């Protein structure tokens, strides 16, 4: 389809007359809403626990507040117990300060999200729109930290294992096996994050990179099978990025509502 060309001197005008700006605006709105919500919840350690459910914003908990935070993770569930006395009084006692922050680092430096917020904030028209200034000069200067993404992958994989552990643990309450809506919500969350993490470009390079040939010995290597599986996920990386982001927020919201008493969890224990 041929793009119509028009000349205009109005603010932020380009040579395109189609609504090319709709996608960047929607992307910006989505990023602000969901990242904003999760950031607020990460600083708030209240109503993040409803036995045996735990919000992904604070899982896994290294420390947890001993009092003053309704719906907080129990002290016995935190790896190192309650917050130490040296913790600064001006900071909220949120477990998100320790291990869960790795998820934010992984997403913020993700290749897909980088492309998304670059188009929103740094160079909205990208290379597809002519007639508009492009201040983006590549990942240089302050943006060089984006190269840390390959290292945040290891933290994300560790965090993913912890979330699967919490998901399986959500089948048990006081030693009794059962299942609740929260159990299913947590397992879907772990599943979507698995698809997002193992479709990552860095993971795909880790398992399939630095090889000249997968079948040089006339046999398909296990790495090739892993690489093909990762490639399938990588082709759908944008979908997994958004679905997993939305579901993390939904998982936290569900546990918040159940923990605060605003919603009743349907389960086999009660």
Shape: globular
Sheet-strand content, in percent, reads under 5%
Q: Please mark out the parts with pLDDT under 50 across 5 or more consecutive residues, or reply none.
A: none
Which H/E pattern describes the elements?
Answer: HEEHHHEEHHHH
Number of domains: 1
**Residue-averaged pLDDT:** 83
Rg from C-alpha positions?
22 Å
Q: Determine the number of helices (DSSP H or I, runs of at least 4 residues).
A: 8
Largest sheet: number of strands, sense, barrel closure: 2 strands, antiparallel
Proportion of helical residues: 40-55%
Strand order of the largest sheet: 1-2
Please state the structural category: mainly alpha
Q: Could you give the distance between the termini?
A: 59 Å
The total of beta strands comes to 4
Question: How does this structure look, described?
Answer:
It is a single chain. The protein is mostly helical. The protein has one domain. Helices cover 46% and strands 3% of the residues. The protein contains eight helices and four strands. Strands 1-2 form a two-stranded antiparallel ribbon. A two-stranded antiparallel ribbon has the order 3-4. Helix 1 packs across helix 3 and helix 5 runs antiparallel to helix 8. The longest helix has 23 residues. The model has no long low-confidence stretch (mean pLDDT 83).
